[in-house]
Specification:
The chain is about 55% helix and about 20% strand. The strands form 3 sheets. Strands 2, 3, 4 and 6 form a 4-stranded antiparallel sheet that branches. Strands 7, 8, 9 and 10 form a 4-stranded antiparallel sheet that branches.
Length: about 300
């Protein structure tokens, strides 16, 4: 009986020892809660247990472990902000943060990561809304994004201190216009480009007409010059031919007259059905009546 009692005491003691030991993994911190209250040290500061092996009172104290690593808050949905010119923007952003004061973090969020991110998101959006609201779209896109993110982080950091959170970085990943505004801008850009294209096309047609008129004028001048030159050459040829005929006629007029008469006969009697009614003694048949041509 005594032996069983001793074994029971040893078992209870072993369970008590095991229950009193807890391990805080690397990258986490531990907070001990006794009867629903956070345990504090002599300076009334929340006791935070570093990574390692620690002890607690079994069945009375509970341990809550908090992640001490850098966290990333990235909302899958885009947030809508209004610029200084009352234009809506869809913004994708993310936040790098970590727990700076574990006691304050636990008291403000209950150690719930989702609750902490909801509260932190509010501070970040307030900071971004203020910065976007004080700038135009051109200022945001053209080069003030870094300054905007820095100012938003500074504003959000002031509020996040109440949560025991330290904001390390705020980044804007992407800025888009809502679909209705994008379509409106696209239609306006398309109309502007169409107007510019029409203007260039009209200028091109005007230049084409000018070039065509210039070419036509040059062609007309060239044709006129060619006609003039051809007439000059033809006149010179006719003059030369007339001179040759004159020289030949002056040398033997009777032979020249005979050749011309033969050509006239040939041209007059090309068709067998041709009929010529003249008097027999007409000078046209002078060489037909002669027995020979006298030289």
């Amino acid at each position: 009986m005594m032996k069983n009692l001793v074994l029971a005491l040893i078992a209870i003691l072993g369970i008590g020892v095991v229950s009193s030991v807890f391990v805080v993994p690397e990258g986490e911190r531990g907070i001990v809660i006794r009867f629903g209250k956070i345990q504090r040290d002599d300076a009334e500061q929340v006791r935070v247990f570093e990574p390692g092996l620690h002890f607690k009172v079994p069945l009375i104290e509970n341990v809550r472990k908090l992640d001490a690593r850098i966290q990333t808050l990235a909302d899958p949905s885009s947030d809508r902000f209004v610029t200084a010119e009352k234009k809506d923007l869809l913004v994708d952003s993310y936040v790098k943060w970590r727990i700076a004061d574990f006691g304050k973090y636990f008291l403000s969020t209950g150690g719930n990561l989702s609750q902490a991110e909801v509260l932190l998101k509010q501070y970040i959006n307030n900071g971004l809304r203020t910065e976007f609201g004080s700038r135009t779209i051109q200022e945001i896109v053209s080069g003030e994004r870094t300054q905007l993110m820095q100012r938003a982080m500074e504003q959000a950091a002031a509020g996040s201190k109440e949560l025991g959170i330290d904001i390390l970085d705020v980044r804007v990943k992407k800025i888009n216009l809502p679909d209705e505004i994008s379509n409106s801008i696209f239609q306006r850009m398309r109309a502007e480009r169409t107007a510019v294209a029409k203007e260039h096309r009209s200028r091109g047609m005007e230049q084409a007409e000018i070039i065509k008129a210039d070419v036509d004028a040059r062609v007309t001048i060239m044709v006129a010059d060619a006609e003039r030159n051809s007439r000059t050459v033809r006149g010179e040829g006719d003059a030369a031919a007339a001179k040759v005929y004159a020289d030949v006629y002056s040398r033997n007029g009777e032979f020249y007259s005979f050749v011309r008469s033969l050509e006239a006969y040939k041209n007059s009697f090309q068709n067998k059905n041709d009929v010529l009614v003249v008097q027999p003694d007409n000078d046209f048949f002078r060489y037909m009546k002669s027995d020979k041509v006298q030289n």
